[in-house]
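note to self — DONT lose this again. spent like an hour looking for the file last time. sequence + predicted structure for the chain T wanted, 436 res
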Amino acid sequence: MAANLIPIDAPALQPLANSAEYDQLESDLKAIFTSVYNALIRPRERQLNLYGMPHLGDTELMERVLKLNGLPIIRRDDTRTSFLMKAALARNPRRGMIFLKQYLQATWPNVWKVEPLWHPIATADQYPADVTPRSVIDLSPSVQAVYDPNSEDGLPTIYRTDWRGESQLYPTARTNLIKNSNLANNGAGWTLSNATVTSNATVAPDGTQTAAKVSRTAVGNDWAAQIESDVAAAGRLFTGSAYVYAAAMPGNYTLRLRDSTDVEFAFQTITLDDSVGWHRIAISTTFPATAIGGAKFTVDPTSDTGAAGDSFYLWGAQLEAGELTPLIETPVGATATVTDYTVDANGVATFADGETPATPITHFRTSRVRVTRPVTSDNGLGLLEVAKAFRSVLAARLMLELQLSTVFEGIGVTGGLAVANGAMGVMPVLCIGTLS
């Protein structure tokens, strides 16, 4: 009986009890009939009474109806069996996958995993050799494709892990509008206010000796490093960013975005600690809809007091249309455009880094499902139970993966490796682990 239902007594044979009794023999016959009915017929009458709603019945009735619907049930408690009964009889268009998950949760709570299997479009002629769960796929030691498990199609989000940490890669072109991102050649292309630049003065975040040193030339004056792009920025979102190392001058640093006439549209101040090292600080704003010529990006130490020779390190400046993206280094006198990867009609991604091999990243969903659950010492019959439970309802589309314990328990002829071999005759089985 479901836990949230109030038990109701079975109806008594009240009409018989109230009927006339001619003599003691008739009274005895009524008593015998009532006793036999309650002992032998009443349980079956109660079960028959619930045939239209078997999930309210006893375990025997629920298991019988489940088997009639093609689902052998692993014997568990009445509450779980009742839940599975209601799930099995539901007519939901997505019943298959949802019911599979409900079954596993009711039978082996919190120790299972269900993954639809996908196959690369580029190798469709080799199906099912390349089936894979589509969650996170390593394309190289440093590049991963991350798929949305709830998405039926579409491209993954691709990330690279390097000196920048984890950064997203893009299949569309990105341009750094700053023509001298590292302030090489004494800051050519940059406007320096009361400051000088020393090129290649220290190690940059990427490990090269390319970071520039910006030094104050006078006391008490505003000083900054500013770069101007020649892009028409009207009505577009732009993001300016740079790597800054406070070195011996911790404090507040401000990023500013202006138009070509020095009208400031946005600024952002951040406090930098010299003990932390390099920071990438960024600012974004949408420029007005009227044509304003170019855009100016400024890195400005906000303290105007101090001594001549105060300095900070600057490297990897970037001004780009849109949101912040990974750094694109540019030479003196030229912008730079990169496309991290392209995807052809077969769904194969080709990467611009020259290191990540061309890899299929678009897939089609197959009819296969991978079920992963552990085989533990307290469930030695697990393989046999899974095979029995799913053979009649999901055998055609179920691929079973079992995480095996390192040692099988000695549980007799119905368990251990003998059961695994038997299960392989029922459905495809992929065993991962070491047996001893």
